[in-house]
Amino acid sequence: MKLIEELWTSLIESLGALGSVVRFLLRLLAASPRALLRPDLIAKQIYNSGALSLVIIMLSGLFVGMVLGLQGFELLQRFGSEEALGTAATIGLVKELGPVVTALLFAGRAGTALASELGLMRATDQLSAMEMMAVDPIRRVVVPRFLGGVIAMPLLAAIFSVIGIYGAQLVGVQLMGVDAGSFWSQMRASVGLSDINEGIVKSCIFGVACSLIAVYEGYYATPTAEGVGRATTRTVVTSAVVILFFDYLITAAFL
Fold this sequence. Notes:
This protein is mainly α. It is 87% helix and 0% strand.
């Protein structure tokens, strides 16, 4: 009986937290049109979330592509289809690895930065000071960071996929001896618009989810050093679970 009560309590708390996140998202969407009147703030956050994450995204994309080239060549060689390496690597990167790995890296780099920044602003009463001066912190501080993350995420995923394809080509063609013409021609013939659209949809949804979780955890963080640390940790853990959950749902929907 006690176990059932604990499960019921946990369910109620989870539903309450979900409702709080949804209400927060609606507040962000309502304040977004006015925040768009300050494109300089959004551009700065795109730089902070996107440009400052380029190094880790590009390096990770290169090595993921190289590993995919090695594993794909070894697998396709068993069936005598080494020339299809370009198709296999591109579909794997564009549809799955590009959006998912980029979102996980984005949550670990940009998401934690957003959560800790807002958490420190909460702990040092900067957000409360804005409210006392009749400045809406949601519109002035939170929304530009949210929109910056949403815009940066698909761009980073595209860069990751492009660099990954180059890494797969580098290993497959230069090291394993796959014909370069077959690599690129089969890739162009087999990869369709629907594959690219799936990757775009995933990266956009992941960008909204990661940015929303980061700004929510930071904005409502307990105003202590320990509270900011917990908010940062929750940002990474929750983002990872949500990314993988939505990845399954979107993949199933496209199939």
